[in-house]
């Protein structure tokens, strides 16, 4: 009988077999150009402008953004006890009902995972401990950047200019637009942000 009595037990005590290997890990394609090329201002008629910053950005605006993220990331001009991110990241202010900021982490090639997040770098109320929060499953998606001459996969390469990015939140809707004939990221993304 393997019913649990409420006593804390380890996996070893339960004799749970180790997870089976799912095969070799897929290695991410490197960024098609340097991370700094992705930083800058992007605009969408419905959502407005967003300014993406790297951890090394030095503009006045980006220094404000990075000071908010400093308790949560390393490698900014501000001290942080947090280890460096394992993937290149971009950061921005995104003051909306459900978030204060957005973080984009490189996945593969010109694709980034994004997370809308609310930062409390000075804590909240009497508690001055910094914390970050987001709604799991509701605040995530991907940003697909387009470089050089057009659609996904076109014009990508060292020195290619970033034209913009497609924000994909609803994967089912994106797939439906592709099946309906959408030709490129601009057409199938939930929102297109043009580089300004």
C-alpha Rg, in Å? Answer: 20 Å
Average pLDDT level: 81
Estimated share of beta-strand residues: 25-35%
For the biggest sheet, the summary is: 9 strands, antiparallel
pLDDT < 50 runs, ≥5 residues = 1-25, 150-159
Q: State the separation between the terminal residues, measured CA to CA.
A: 65 Å
Portion of residues in helices?
10-25%
Question: Secondary-structure element sequence?
Answer: HEEHEEEEEEHHE
Overall outline: globular
Strand runs, count: 9
Number of helices: 4
Structural class: alpha+beta
In words, what does this structure look like?
With 196 residues, the protein is an alpha+beta fold. Helix content is 14%, strand content 31%. The chain has 4 helices and 9 strands. The protein has helices at 11-14, 60-69, 171-179, 185-188; strands at 40-44, 48-52, 89-96, 99-108, 111-120, 131-133, 140-147, 162-168, 191-195.
Question: What's the layout of helices and strands?
Answer:
Layout (H helix, E strand, L loop, with lengths): L10 H4 L25 E5 L3 E5 L7 H10 L19 E8 L2 E10 L2 E10 L10 E3 L6 E8 L14 E7 L2 H9 L5 H4 L2 E5 L1
Antiparallel strand pairs: 1-2, 1-9, 3-4, 4-5, 5-6, 5-7, 7-8, 8-9
Summarize this, please?
By secondary structure, this protein is of the alpha+beta class.
Main attributes of the structure:
196 residues, alpha+beta, 4 helices, 9 strands, globular, disordered N terminus
